[in-house]
Amino acid sequence: MGSGDKMKHKADEAKGKVKETVGDATDDASMRAKGRAEQAKAKGKQAGDDLKDAGRDAKEAFDK
């Protein structure tokens, strides 16, 4: 997985956290929910990145 994708997914997670925090501060349930959803989506993408990395690492270990 490219480091650019990983950085983007981390940034998306941070953006979601900011939205959640703003929603908490302003008592805006919609903003809070959007922030949590963005975080969940980003964490899912990060899990996919990790899975791809693990698969690649396993393949490289067997190719040696």
Kindly summarize this structure in a few lines.
The chain is mainly alpha-helical. Helices cover about 90% and strands about 0% of the residues.
What does this structure look like?
With 64 residues, this protein is mainly α. It has one domain (3-63). 92% of the residues lie in helices and 0% in strands. The chain has 2 helices and no strands. The model has no long low-confidence stretch (mean pLDDT 92).
**SSE string, helix = H, strand = E?**
HH
Q: Calculate the mean pLDDT score and round it.
A: 92
Radius of gyration: 16 Å
| Proportion in helices | over 70%
- Uncertain spans: none
Count, helices: 2
Number of strands: 0
Classify the secondary structure makeup into a structural class. mainly alpha
Q: Work out the oligomeric state of the chains in this entry.
A: single chain
* Domain module tally: 1
- Judging from the principal axes of the Cα atoms, what is the shape? rod-shaped
Distance between the termini: 20 Å
| % residues in beta strands | under 5%
Largest sheet: none
Topology:
Elements: H1 3-26, H2 29-63
Helix pairs in contact: 1-2
Pick out its properties.
64 residues, mainly alpha, 2 helices, 0% strand
